[in-house]
From TrEMBL:
Classification of source organism: Archaea, Methanobacteriati, Methanobacteriota, Stenosarchaea group, Halobacteria
Nucleotidyltransferase as UniProt keyword: no
Membrane-crossing segments per the record: 12-31, 51-71, 83-101, 121-146, 167-186
Protein name: Putative membrane protein
Swiss-Prot/TrEMBL keywords: Membrane, Transmembrane, Transmembrane helix
Tagged with keyword Membrane: yes
Pfam families in alphabetical order: DUF420
Length: 203
């Protein structure tokens, strides 16, 4: 009896793999914010700024890839769609590789109290939606991605990939755009306060 390949195992257990990866992802982020992962190197404030800029670039590129992938699938260009969505997924993994050390080894920024109330409330509103969408979107994105990478185009017609993919891409794009907008507000338009990681974790 032939042994199933890793791809086939994932294909046969997309829901279970999605749940597993989602739990691991949530745990990594939560543990990082709680200071429970002591493996991150100390990152200076300038390093945090540099990572923040790089993350904004990566997220902007991910938005462009998602938009292109959406356009291509609506025009029946499956290979281009798959390439664009795979690139977007890789970019998000790259985001995590920068974001977790930035928070765990560097610190966090917060919009300053001196910023006008209208701007601050708008910022908090966008940040709230961005965070909620980031949390809710993760399993949906993973599920759509795993379906797309383990099934042929013909097989995908018998799965909820198209419906789930529209939800995943739409919410993912909105979350990323809001993330970039809040980055611009915090880093380029108005002032912020900075809390080093050790201070954040001691509170």
């Amino acid at each position: 009896m032939a042994t199933a390949t890793p791809r086939q195992r994932i294909k046969d257990n997309v829901t279970a793999v999605t749940v597993l990866l989602t739990v691991v992802g949530y745990a990594l982020v939560a543990a990082t914010f709680e200071g429970l992962i002591p493996i991150f190197p100390d990152i200076s404030r300038s390093g945090v700024n540099l990572l923040g800029h790089a993350i904004a670039v990566v997220n902007t590129l991910a938005v462009l890839c998602l938009a292109a992938g959406w356009y291509w699938i609506r025009n029946g260009e499956v290979d281009k769609h798959r390439a664009a969505m795979t690139t977007a997924f890789v970019l998000i993994l790259l985001f995590l590789l920068m974001y977790l050390p930035k928070v765990g080894g560097g610190g966090q920024k917060a919009i300053a109290d001196t910023v006008p109330d209208l701007v601050r409330y708008s910022y908090f509103g966008m940040l709230f939606v961005h965070i909620v969408l980031s949390v809710v979107t993760m399993p949906v994105v993973l599920y759509a991605f795993l379906l797309g990478t383990t099934h042929t185009p013909a097989e995908l017609r018998d799965t909820p990939h198209a419906k789930i993919g529209r939800i995943a891409a739409g919410s993912w794009i909105l979350s990323l755009v809001l993330g970039v907008v809040t980055y611009v507000i915090l880093n380029h338009a108005y002032s912020y306060t900075f809390e080093p990681a050790m201070l954040v974790f001691s509170l």
